[in-house]
Design goal:
about 75% helix; globular; MetI-like_sf; transmembrane
Length: about 290
């Protein structure tokens, strides 16, 4: 018996398939053009950092495509020989890494406590934490300056690290608490039945399952701290200033040293990009985890 070919059983017609392919192609072309548009400034900065001061001052960076002999590594050699820049680069690492690690460790522990531990005032404390998310950094600059002066840590690396840690914790706790709350209760109950304490459950169950969210938080916090200039400009002195402040001071002292600024800016950009690509898979998993049941 031959089945009757009804309209309901027919697939999309040739016109519909052609329209779908055209629409998909248009979306891809649009995404490609957007990516190229966003990459042009980065490519220009990279090429400018590889050109000499004379070439930069006379022609545009696109001239290198017709005259590749302009490319040189002298700018980066001079940059690495600049003690101010190298010391500032070290300060950036000494500020960013502890501020990121502290936020992750404290935020993960607090997120677990808000998600799975019962204690008086838990919900009110969490509401207060959410309210802290809308407090701008500028509001705390003067009070924290006075507090740091009292304790003698104004102008030090410790003061900058503590400020970044304090303002990074509300978002960290909020993010990780919501992620940890999605962990099945049965897993934690099974661990408790096996005699595991809260610290063991946190280290052996919660942290491994929360790896994508923790990686996402690490990327966010690292980028925020590494690219910051306002906090470091106020709370760091000349000996503890990070790379962003050092580049700003180079601009103020030498208005036409674009060769130093371009290479320094690209160096400052490469490190957070490397961190992002290193944790890209975990970052995407952390972003999409809450949308998939």
């Amino acid at each position: 018996m031959t089945a009757i070919d009804t309209p309901a059983r027919r697939g999309p017609g040739p016109a519909a398939r052609l329209a779908a392919r055209a629409g998909s192609g248009a979306v891809r072309v649009g995404l490609l053009l957007t990516a190229v548009f966003w990459l042009v400034p980065t490519v220009g900065l990279l090429i400018s950092s590889l050109r000499g001061p004379a070439d930069i001052s006379t022609t545009g960076w696109w001239r290198v495509f017709t005259d590749p002999a302009q490319l040189t590594l002298h700018n980066y050699a001079d940059l690495m020989g600049n003690s101010t820049i190298t010391h500032a680069l070290l300060n950036s690492v000494l500020i960013t890494v502890p501020a990121t690690v502290l936020v992750i460790v404290i935020g993960a522990m607090a997120g677990y406590a808000f998600a799975w531990l019962e204690f008086p005032g838990r919900d009110w404390l969490f509401l207060l934490l959410i309210a802290l998310l809308v407090v701008p950094i500028q509001v705390a600059l003067i009070p924290v300056t006075k507090l740091y002066a009292t304790f003698g840590i104004f102008g030090s690396l410790v003061g900058v690290i503590l400020f970044h840690t304090a303002f990074g914790l509300p978002f960290a706790i909020f993010l990780l608490r919501n992620f940890f709350a999605e962990i099945p209760r049965e897993l934690l109950e099974a661990g408790r039945l096996d005699g595991a304490g809260e610290l063991r459950l946190f280290a052996r169950v919660v942290v491994p399952l929360g790896g994508p969210a923790i990686a996402s938080l690490a990327i966010f916090q690292f980028l925020w701290v590494w690219n910051d200039m306002l906090v470091a400009l106020i709370f760091a002195n000349s000996g503890s200033a990070p790379l962003t402040v050092a580049l700003q001071q180079q601009t103020r002292q030498f208005g036409d040293n674009i060769d130093v600024l371009s290479s320094g800016a690209f160096l400052s950009m490469v490190i957070p990009l490397a961190v992002f690509f290193a944790f890209q898979r975990q970052f995407v998993s952390g972003i999409t985890a809450g949308a998939v049941k």
